[in-house]
Design goal:
The chain is of the alpha/beta class. About 50% of the residues lie in helices and about 10% in strands. It folds into three domains: about 140 residues, Rossmann fold (3-Layer(aba) Sandwich), CATH 3.40.50.20; about 130 residues, no CATH class; about 200 residues, no CATH class. The radius of gyration is 27 Å and the shape is globular.
Length: about 500
């Protein structure tokens, strides 16, 4: 079966960004069930959510203590503030939890994406800091303004670190097959198949399909038989102990879909409907009403104006600072490359730039001087498809080159390409002209709209294991959904991804 865009989109977005912090195998934020017989199986919901709340409290306390240290140093009795600040901090802890709850930080669907969660944490932390100031005023307890000022960044940092740790724990637990939401899948067409593939291949998403229904009962989905018709969905939910239903909207009629959703909602079952859209970031979607219909408005991507200017300024500043700070290291690497093997220290190659313009990309030489001539003899050992070339134990790589590639240090000279405006810090991988021969018209038309990048979605998405199709999809997704926030997120992921020692093409 041909997988559709739903699988592609999750691969692009990086699955780690979609790990919810609470137990999504539970019935959350729902009204009392209308029919107790339809009640889904609950899987320790309070324990999971209480653990996250307790972790938040610990992080907030650490942040408040950090703010005190920043304000008064190690003199804990400075200005007699210890007692007052301790009292305000203790009284405010329940308020912090209420604020975090109001910002939906304990509801998985609002924090499943890392960037969405970060925005809510920032707003909640600011609100919590202001609430402490209000409490101090109401309690007539004098607290230093400097302490309140330091509270915001200190608590924000502590909570972000704690939430990232919690995300990693939940991801690991789900990969082991625990804390998964049991769902019934409605549909057995290609779209339903891609959803089913997601739940099978990526358990970190938190779903486990326990039943399939479709009006074409003779169908099978990935070898699994359909267990009933669409009208049997609620019965399937009760029989399997599922807590939710995922509807592949292209597999059912509008009338059946509306009737089914009402029935499931009346029974207190969680319902999710696919949109059938592909490679469009959820942040660009706005739900609006058009008469009785719920419509999805897609925000256009704006690459020009102040955004383009801000991206270029960011490129200039970051490349200039990077070259200055890395100058001693670059000099040492230059000497090491020259001493390790015959040939120059740098390797230059013509690549495809914005609007198809050619430019010379610069890298430290990591292979023997005649590496390009030797490639044809190794072509039959290529480990990737398409025009890309990848060989795990490439005999052309030098001893120094092996270490440079391991940490992607060989690409640092491309900061000069960025400073010249030929590349950007973030963008699609700079491609060879020979690769363009296998580009589809869509890729050719879309990818050349932007400058290639030193890092990008391809580099932070496990490049060693990606196929040429993944490479194409990642490029298209980046260009179609570009934003300054996305660039910053990719930059933040680049260093830890490089430390994982993925090989380079």
């Amino acid at each position: 079966m041909e997988t559709s865009s739903v699988l592609d989109l999750v691969t692009v977005d990086d699955l780690e960004d979609r790990v919810a912090l609470d137990d999504s195998a539970i019935q959350e934020d729902s009204a009392p069930l209308a029919d107790s017989a339809a009640a889904p199986v609950r899987s320790r919901p309070l324990v999971a959510k209480a653990c996250v709340m307790a972790a938040d409290i610990c992080a907030i306390v650490v942040g408040l203590i950090g703010a005190f240290v920043l304000t008064h140093g190690t003199n804990i009795n400075a200005q007699g503030a210890q007692h007052a600040l301790t009292m305000i901090s203790l009284v405010s802890l329940p308020v912090w939890l209420v604020i975090f709850s109001r910002y939906r930080l304990y509801t998985s669907r609002f924090v499943s994406i890392r960037m969405a969660e970060l925005g809510r944490v920032v707003h909640a932390t600011l609100a919590g800091t202001l609430a402490m100031g209000g409490l101090a005023f109401l309690m007539k307890t004098p607290v230093p303004r400097s302490w309140l000022i330091f509270c915001f960044p200190s608590v924000l940092l502590a909570v972000c670190i704690e939430r990232e740790a919690a995300r990693a724990v939940f991801s690991r637990v789900r990969r082991s097959g625990k804390m998964l939401r049991r769902v019934v899948l409605v549909g057995a067409n290609d779209e339903a198949g891609s959803i089913h593939d997601l739940t099978e291949q990526f358990p970190a998403l938190g779903y486990q399909v326990v039943g399939i229904v479709d009006d074409h009962s003779a169908r099978q989905l990935d070898g699994e038989p359909v267990g009933g018709r669409v009208e049997d969905t609620l019965e399937m939910v009760r029989a399997t102990g599922a807590s939710g239903v995922i509807v592949a909207t292209t597999a059912v009629t509008a009338l059946s879909s509306n009737r089914l959703v009402r029935e499931l909602m009346d029974a207190g079952v969680h319902v999710e409907l696919s949109s059938s859209l592909s490679d469009i970031d959820a942040e660009r979607l706005v739900v609006r009403q058009l008469g009785p219909l719920s419509m999805l408005y897609i925000e256009p991507v704006r690459r020009g104006g102040w955004r383009a200017a801000a991206k270029r300024i960011f490129d200039i500043v970051s490349s200039l600072v990077g070259l200055i700070l890395a100058a001693p290291i670059l000099a040492a690497i230059t000497v090491a490359v020259r001493l390790d093997s015959p040939g120059g220290a740098f390797f230059s190659q013509i690549r495809v730039g914005k609007d198809g313009a050619p430019f010379k990309v610069h890298k430290f030489r990591t292979m023997v001087a005649d590496a390009e001539a030797l490639r044809s003899a190794l072509q039959d050992r290529n480990e990737v498809d398409g025009p890309l070339f990848k060989l795990t134990n490439d005999p052309r790589i030098t001893r120094v080159g092996k270490w440079l590639r391991r940490f992607s240090v060989d690409e640092v000279p491309q900061l000069w390409n960025i400073l010249k405006g030929e590349m950007s810090l973030v963008g699609p991988r700079p491609a060879l002209y020979s690769e363009m021969e296998e580009w589809s018209p869509e890729l050719l038309r879309t990818r050349l709209r932007v400058r290639p990048g030193l890092t990008g979605m391809w580099q932070v998405s496990g490049r060693s294991s990606l196929s040429f199709a993944d490479y194409v999809r990642l490029d298209l997704y980046y260009v179609d959904n570009w934003s300054l926030w996305r660039d910053m997120a990719i930059v933040a992921k680049t260093v830890p991804e490089a430390l994982k020692q993925h090989g380079a093409y």
